[in-house]
Write a structure and sequence with these properties.
alpha/beta; 6-stranded mixed beta sheet
Length: 118
Amino acid sequence: HAEIAGIPCEPYTATKLASLRAQKRPVFVDATAAWCITCLVNEKVALSGSRVRDTFATRHIAYLVADWTNRNSEITALLAAHGRSGVPLYLYYAPGAANAAVLPQVLTEGEVLQTIGS
């Protein structure tokens, strides 16, 4: 497992997302790219705090990273499904929710904590 901002994460696939949702796990999807400055800033500002890390851990939130650096077609489809043509895109699937909560493109720690239900 890799980590982003100290949070264990795995690569996004539609299959992995469906599997986690079937297990009623909360899932946070981070669509990002190496060249996305906003993504890197959000990581530092909103996702690297200990309160966010602790909430991911205590709520057993799966963190899937949709790395669009090479314009992966599965991630392009994920973006398009949410009306986006590029990154960043942050999605939170609460357990049993029909749809994802879409977070703002410019994140704050408070918004992340509010969305993931701390």
